[in-house]
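Give me the fold.
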Amino acid sequence: MRILALHGYGTSGAILRSQLDTFISRADASYEFQSLSLNTSSHTRLLSSHTGLGNFVTGPFLCYNSALAPTDIQRCCDLLDDVVAEQGPFDGVLGFSQGGSLALTYLLQHEIQHPDAPPPFRFAILFSTIAAFSPDAAFGAEVLASLTPSDLAVLASFPHADFSQLSSPNADKRALVETLAHALEIAKNGGFISAETEDGSAAFVGSGTKRDYSRLPRVMHPALLVERVRVPTVHVAGQKDHAGLVELSKLMRGVCDARVMRSLVHAGGHDVPRLAKDVKAVLVAMEWAVEQSRRQVW
C-alpha cells in the first residue's frame, strides 16, 4: 500500500514525516508513506516556518504554491501529474493543511476533466484542510460575468466588503467571493499563509464592468460544483484549531461523496493527531477508507 504524503505551507516533506512519526509507526507495516520530495526549485522557499511548528524545527520551509490564482494552482496539478507518472502508482494520498487542499483540488479536477477514468488515488486522508482552489480560470466565470456595476462598487473594498449588499440572486456570488475573502482573512491573520499572498483584489479596482479576473483565486465551493470526489475520504480537524479554519474544513467535506466519507476531531490544534487515542481513531478510519476503496469499481 503506497500513500503519497503532501506537506503543509511553510513546512517540507521531511517536517511532515516528523509530524507523522507516531501515526506512521502505528500504521500497518506494509504501508509505505512517501513524502513528496522535490527539488526546492519546484517549491517556493519561505523565510519562516508554518505557525505552530515551534522554534526548534529546521528548514527549508517550503510551500507548493505561494499564490492561489488558477495558473498557480495549475502548476501544482502539473507537478502532481509528473509525480504520479514518474513515482506512482499510489493507492492513496494524505495531505496536511495546504497539502490536503492540493489533494482535494487534484481529485476534484480529475472528476471534472476525466469523470470516466480511474482516479489518481483510491482514497484520501485529509488533515486540517483549508480550502481547495481551482486551477481553471473558467471556474466561476459565469458568476463573475453576472456582477453588476453596483456589485463591483461593493467589491471595491474586497476582501473587506459587505457581501450582503451584492445584488440578488446573490447566493453564487457570495459562495465565490465571500468564501474567498473569508479564507484569505483567516489564513493570513492566523499566519497560515503569508500576509503578502496575492488576493486578486486588483480585479475589483477600477471602472467599468470589463475586468481581468485571471489572478482572482477560485474556491471550489460545493454550491458551485456538481462534481464530487467519489473516492473514500477521511477528514480530520483539530479541536483547538482556529474556528474559521475548522469551518472551511467542514465546507470542503461538501465536495466529497458523503456516502464514502468520515470526519473526525482530534484534541490538538492545526496539526496532525498526536495523542495515542486520536492516532488510533484515524488509523481505524483509514482502514475503513482502504476497505471502501477496494469495493469500488472504475
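Strands lie at 2-6, 32-35, 44-46, 61-63, 92-96, 123-127, 233-238, 261-266.
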